[in-house]
Write a structure and sequence with these properties.
Radius of gyration: 18 Å
CATH class: Alpha Beta
Distance between the termini: 33 Å
Strand content: 5-15%
Number of domains: 1
Number of strands: 7
CATH topology: Rossmann fold
Length: 231
């Protein structure tokens, strides 16, 4: 195995294996495999999972923070397990709501970043990942609904991948819910005015997601969803 030179305050678990020659890729593949195995094992004891996405930069004073917290409470009260990226902002709010109803229903799947993203204090069970793509799989693996609050590139990335997987029938049709119609309107208008008008998507592709404004509206879709196994 290639030698890893650690910088000050680094540990092997948060340090990428160097690729000094092509044969070193073997060790990176083993690490990727380990993240998948550990991730699936971590989630295997959870039931009725719902994944909540949104900006890590959302402040506790933001109305959407309060709506995400309210949603977390609603979900936990009805027996759903809340899964987030484990960080601050919207993720913290959803975990917080679930945690105060039933800590067992609050799960966080965190990511190790150069400027470390802290695990929020309302995660009862947490697991860390080095690779974004392994973490993305775990966030999507077994949830029966996906809820997107306002967010940035990461939130948009997760949303785009999920609607692509459903559009191409690589995963079951699963509710995808966008919260805050005003926030998402410019993107949806672009879907209609650029992508649809130019034949890049079909009209039915606009039905792959739902747009709502409140936690109550989210729950109407979640309640209709069915628990499922991995993909």
């Amino acid at each position: 195995m290639p030698k890893i030179k650690l910088k000050k305050n680094q540990s092997p678990s948060t340090t990428e294996l160097p690729l000094e020659k092509m044969s070193d890729i073997t060790w990176r593949v083993f690490r990727i495999m380990a993240e998948f195995v550990e991730g699936f094992q971590f989630l295997s004891n959870s039931t009725k999972e719902v994944s909540v996405y949104g900006s890590a930069r959302t402040l506790a004073t933001d109305p959407q923070y309060h709506e995400a917290e309210k949603l977390g409470r609603r979900l936990a009260r009805e027996g759903y397990t809340v899964i987030t990226g484990g960080g601050p902002g919207i993720m913290e709010a959803a975990n917080k709501g679930a945690y105060y109803v039933d800590p067992q229903k609050s799960i966080g799947l965190n990511i190790q970043l150069p400027h470390e993203q802290r695990m929020n204090p309302y995660v009862h069970k947490g697991h860390g990942f080095y690779y974004f793509f392994t973490r993305k799989v775990m966030l999507a693996a077994s949830s029966q609904a996906y809820i997107f609050f306002p967010g940035g590139y990461g939130t948009l990335d997760e949303f785009s991948e999920l609607i692509t997987l459903i559009q191409t029938h690589k995963m079951q049709a699963t509710p995808i819910i966008l919260v805050d119609s005003e926030y998402w309107k410019p993107l949806i208008d672009w879907f209609k005015g650029a992508m649809l008008d130019n034949g890049a998507i079909a009209k039915n592709d606009l039905k792959l997601f739902h747009v709502v404004d409140t936690a109550d509206e989210v729950m109407t879709y979640v309640r209709k969803s069915k628990e499922r196994s991995f993909f």
